[in-house]
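2024-03-11 09:14:02 INFO queue: dequeued item DNA 3'-5' helicase, len=884
2024-03-11 09:14:02 INFO validating residues
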Amino acid sequence: PAMYSSLHAADSDSDDSLLSDVSASPTRRCSPAPRPAPPKHRPTPDPTSKPKRKPKPKPKPVPSSTSAPASASASASASASAPPIRAAALSDPHGLAARIAPGSALTASASTVSFSSFRRLVQSRNLSFEPAAAFSNPGPAPELEPEPESEPAEIPSAEPSPPPAATHPPPQLRPKRVHPNSVSEAPAAAAEQPKRPRGDPGNFVRLNINGYGRKKSFKSQARRPTKYRSWKRQQPGGGKPRAGADEEGDFVAEALLEREKNSAAGDDGVLKVVEVAREDPSEQNLEGLLRKVFGYDSFREGQLEAIQNVVAGESTVLVLPTGAGKSLCYQLPAMILPGLTLVVSPLLSLMVDQLRKLPAFLPGGLLASSQTSDEFHGTLRLLRAGEIKVLFVSPERFLNEEFLQIFGDTLPISLVVIDEAHCISEWSHNFRPSYLRLRASLLRRKLNIQCILAMTATATTQTLQEIVNALEIPSGNLIQTSQIRENLKLSISMSDNRLKDLMLLLKSPPFVNMRSIIVYCKFQTETDYVCKHLCDNNINAKSYHSGLLMKKRSRVQELFCSNKIRVVVATVAFGMGLDKSDVEGVIHYRLPESLEEYIQETGRAGRDGRLSHCHLLFDSTTFYKIRSLSHSDGIDEYAMSKFLNQIFSSGNTMGCICSFPKESTSRKFDIKEEVLLTVLTQLEIGEEQYLHLLPQFSVTCTLYFHKFSGELSYELKDPAYCYMILKRPDDLNALSANLTKWLSEVENSKIRKLDAMFALAYYAVKGCKKTDGCSGSEHTPCIQKRIIDYFSKKEGTPDDDYCTPLRKSSTFLQSDIKVFLQSNSFAKFTPRAVARIMHGISSPAFPAATWAKNHFWGRYMEVDFPVVIEAAKAELVKFVGKGE
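2024-03-11 09:14:37 INFO prediction written
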């Protein structure tokens, strides 16, 4: 018997595997053909004709009864006879035996062929049948009874068999496969088995039955290397892993690579237009440059005046609505001015987006903390070579003296652009301590800068005055347009069940037919919860907040911009630098913290000039929660005094470099880390400069010795604020009182902004007379009027007494505070700490993870915070006086 390797049996297209299985099949009982008589003797097989084991063996003839010399003569006599009449044999309905070459490895009867094919088909459809076990190692085939030496039975055939060759038989053609279920006379097409996947073991196919496994929805999710990694491997030593790089570093590197690929050498036409505009920055020449590079026919309101001021070297404050083209006001001058344009931006994602949107003829760069040392020095090398015209940096870079020393006489700066300039003012809705350092005195003293462009989309009169004073910009160079676009329909509705109303809103006109909608939430957990609820109700949505990885946020923004997802549920971080002009709707799931924030977020819609809709779901519970959180940054004078004593301790003399860990100090004085930085910044830029801030660093270094590999690694922990003492205050108590008062005013400013937002929403829902065009939930006329009044309010005008639902007293407040102090006598409380717990506000010393389990947590959220502080102060005096 012939033996066949598993390689033959595993291949579904192999003829040898088919014949080996056919030869081992039992005969069919219903066959009318008589069984051949047993032979007189068994022929001796030829050992040289056995098939050899090769990767791709070809079928060779094996010894059989047809190859014997005796049968050769019988075969010749049979072929010489007249051809038989064509008929369908009952034992061979498919005619398979007639097409099997006489020189094949094994020969079987027609009934054997038919039954074996049917048996294989039935077994292959059985769920418990394992073809790998059945066909890969078939084992030794049973011995077949050889054909008799007499003349074989005549096989019906359409054509007579050709006479055999004298010496060697001619090479036989591959036999055609016949469908096992065919009942036709003519041979039918073979039923091919499904091809197994490439590299898959056996004949099994991997199935994704219950949704497990990788699901590719978009092309960019395929398993292939990114552009940056492909490019990096082509560089010298590019295959090595980048030590210390994180996912934000990869994100920045990919943006730089994309910028490098998209950039092109400036052609002569653009250079000529730039030279003409540089010599004469007239309106006609600037519009020619605008058409040549940016493809626009004319400037929008405020753009031309700002560009002409900057080109002439005059510092300017520019206030344009969201999406009105503020970026153009520094991109076009950057092409004309001879030196570098330095752009200060608050967010890394915003810087990367602005870098990508630079025109191809304007080379740009980026300095970020997430870059590796090679990338950082590579950018500096391009800067010194003059190959970068626009450089994006964060405000924290100005704390680094080495960074400031880079820009000297060898690298002149023609323009400094401060994006989101309202962050400079502590009275703004988005105050950032690092922006406080961006003063004209610092910029001129350290960088020798003469021209500053401050840009913002939302700023009150008081905030604008603070910006003008800090940057020393003439008041006549303030360019301001309307902060409200006329193509926005503004609506507000009272909601008792915001999740249910949101679903109803998205499934009813006009939002049901919108392709791009942004839903703004306040908290990250709330964002994920709302997004999950929308997805469960067949609404294509994704969440976006700062808790997600940079690449995932970038992916969500990319899908939203390409209209592959309809709804993005996001926090306030989404939308800054969003390059999507066809957003049709914005829904506020919670009350915004200020009118500035409300205008900035609604401004994401309708940038293409088409009619867009913005809706606010208003409820008083949200107002209580947000107003309580507005008191999270306050400091008691007692805590401020202790903190200053640590900064200016007796051992910290003038010129001494000191530091303190952020986390432990924050927990010790119950002051947030951001507030600690604000106090240090105020000590540096105040009326008297007491200290000089230095870059942050880690105070703990842990070394790891790896015994087997012989390597040494380290880990930096406990980030700390570092500073140098320049002057010791004469009166620490007076300084502590002044700083506490200043922080209290900043806190009150934030609360007044929230009260103004509440008053607008409450008026639209409850007090609107609906006489100026308001109808139903749409209140565009009255909302626009109150917004204009808010932003045009003159400095020095007394603040409005906004009506809020907060209570000024409570019957059981004093008694509940007393019980709380008695049941938690082990803790050291301050009046502010007790009030925070009663309002449900987490703090470094009393985090929500521990104290939210207390049944007094958030019980008096509806009572005004100063009222709770006074009650806590009175009870603490009694509690300490009794010695409890």
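2024-03-11 09:14:37 INFO annotate: The mean pLDDT is 76.
2024-03-11 09:14:38 INFO item closed
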